[in-house]
Amino acid sequence: MPLLRQALGFAQLALVAAWNSKATQEDFYTFQEFYTDAQYGPDFGYYSTGRILHGGASQEDPTGAAYFNSYTTQPMSLSPFFGQLLCDRVVSMWISMGRPAPFFLMEFGGGTGMLARDILRHGRNAHEEFFAAARYVIGERSPALQAAQRQTAAEFVPSKLLVVDADARSASKVRQHLKVAVVRGVVLSNELLDEFDPVRLRLSWAGASPDQGRCKQCAAFREAHVLHRIDERALAQLLRRSEEAQVLGEAIRWEAKSLPCGLLDTQLLQRQVVERLSAALSTEELRRCSPMQLCCAALLLAVDGLMQDDHSSLQLGKLAASDQLLRRYRQQVARTNGTLLLSKHRYRQLRRLALQEGLGFEQELLMGSFGRFYSDEVYFALSPSRCRELGPWRNRHAARLAAAAKLRGATAPVYDRRNLGSTLQLKILVQPGHAEFVQEASALVDEGFMISMDYGADADALLWQALVHPNHEGIHIMDAREATSQCSSSYLACPGLQDITMTVDFTEAAEAGEAAGWRTAAYAPIFQLELAQEDEHLPPLASLLERAGGPRSVGLHAWYRHSGADAWASFKVLVQYRGVKRWSLGSSSLSWPLRKVPALAEAPDECWSNDLSKPALAALVARSVDLGSSFQKLLEDLRAMQEAAELQYAWQRQAYRDLHLAQLLADYWLYFARAGPRESCLAPSADLRAAWLQQVRSVAVARRLPEMHGEVMFNRVFSALAGNHTPPAEPYECLVSQMIASFC
Ligand SMILES: *[C@@H]1O[C@H](CO)[C@@H](O)[C@H](O)[C@H]1NC(C)=O
Known about the structure:
EC number: 2.1.1.320
CATH architecture of the largest domain: 3-Layer(aba) Sandwich
CATH class of the largest domain: Alpha Beta
Catalytic activity: L-arginyl-[protein] + 2 S-adenosyl-L-methionine = N(omega),N(omega)'-dimethyl-L-arginyl-[protein] + 2 S-adenosyl-L-homocysteine + 2 H(+)
GO cellular component, one term: mitochondrion
CATH topology of the largest domain: Rossmann fold
Structural class: alpha/beta
Family: Belongs to the NDUFAF7 family.
Largest sheet: 8 strands, mixed
Distance between the termini: 61 Å
Oligomer: single chain
Bound molecules: 2-acetamido-2-deoxy-beta-D-glucopyranose
Helix content: 40-55%
Radius of gyration: 28 Å
Number of strands: 16
Strand content: 5-15%
Subcellular location: Mitochondrion
Number of helices: 34
């Protein structure tokens, strides 16, 4: 404590405590709670109200139109081929474990049950012995989705498929349904990790950037909270049918004035800030929120706004002396005029009332034709329980955060023209669910694997995103519906009407896994699942294209051509294992960077000197030795920087496609080359080489790869691979030559 006091200053501590006035703070949403309510809460949650399912879905007909509203996950757009691919991989894991029976496949976030059905069907058709041993269990919390899963995979219920009430955060609950002493199997999840409720943090500092030690301390961080307001007109609409409208209305009005004062309620604050402000205000202004001396909600927002710009304004003397505060207070009074601040309890209550009136009414209420809800984010110091909860996370990431903060400190003066000494911050998203899930999974599985598939990146890349896009929040809104298109302006705009997701931090999933007894086997773009040659249990040409008999569906085109995705945050697979011997997803040299030790300022390894694992601008900056001056040089000519970043982005998208094609061609190559002795595979004669290349080309043409990618791209990649450049010009040449070397 003495240390903390020194670092912060006594007065500041008092205000930090004021921000944390615990009883009151719990009346308002942390961003995490808000997210949970918006996605899964009973009152308006996107999933729990069934809005994740398209229009027709209901309790009676849970599959409705049988597809998801917000996004098309891979197994759906690629059904049944993706399930087949995954099934073959799981069979290979099962064989590597000595074919145990029973063998459990335990899926979380099972959606409509399509992946389960496709995997089980393929098991039944192609792997008789495996199928006999297999038991599929879906842990699902939503009754609507449970029903959908039972219906989609009805042919396997109950002999092969069990749907139980559990979710990923309580995954070990599934164990009681398995009725075996030792659980052997695979924990599967697809697009689940991105759905874990996020804690939004800011690492703020003024002056020297926080070092590793500082990044382990809670005091270095502040956490986002969400404050909701409703305007009087909307409240009147909502309460118009309630018998207790008047009582309720008055209670809400009183709370709106009094509760936020609890957040500011300290003697110091009273004396120094409130009194000084009060003295400056007119009688008229002083009457606005009577009997309160000031409008506490407005003051709260004003102080928070001030702190965003000037961290040191937290010191009370400075705060009290600040004319800024008076100006901001007046702005906030005008801005919040006619609206009432709501506790989370009241917000839920009002959303329940709205839900009863139907989706149309809710949309009006959120988008404003008769008045509406408003939301603000404010940042408070970490509560003691949050501080404890994130301890292991801080330890895992402190070095990385300190490195990123240092970079931010070095580049901010040029990048966002901040004065030296002004407050700087890094926006950080933490999903504590990753650590909980791997812990629960390790209590569930004694021997086996964990396969997690999702859009995501390594922690270095995610921090780079925060560095080069300081205004980016890292949150994505997913909803295809026309009616809610106005909501897309902000993730705070339409809670419950849209899906909110995050880009997964796979480093955290892997490192938290290591702490829970899992080891990391592989991390790569999902298309690495297609490579067959290193896995004797897969069909020799295992690609989706092969299974589908050519590029016949929109889903397949998207899979190979990667339309619309950022390469660095692409769809990935992470394989972890415990209690069994390592199993390989493919050449470890094909794995993407997933470093425990941060490597912000260097290429991850020799194949990545031009890096597609980082955001485009980050890859440009990181290429240079001196990051600060490299940034500065880029910034001297903004247009040139923009052009360079756009070129890099275009290159990355193409490089990602090239890599997928190159891996496929290399897989074909190995199919022919591995038929003979290893020496000739590694160093074939010119004749052999020409013959294999000819065969690879004719397989590729038969599978219509040139047609799908265009002759130009196909020929370019094919000749580069055939040409054996030294040194390799593109990452795919480098990666694929390592792949061939290790699998010949
Ligand atoms: C608040 O709104 C009312 C009604 O629209 C208006 O008369 C009043 O001037 C506003 N007050 C402030 C401080 O903006």
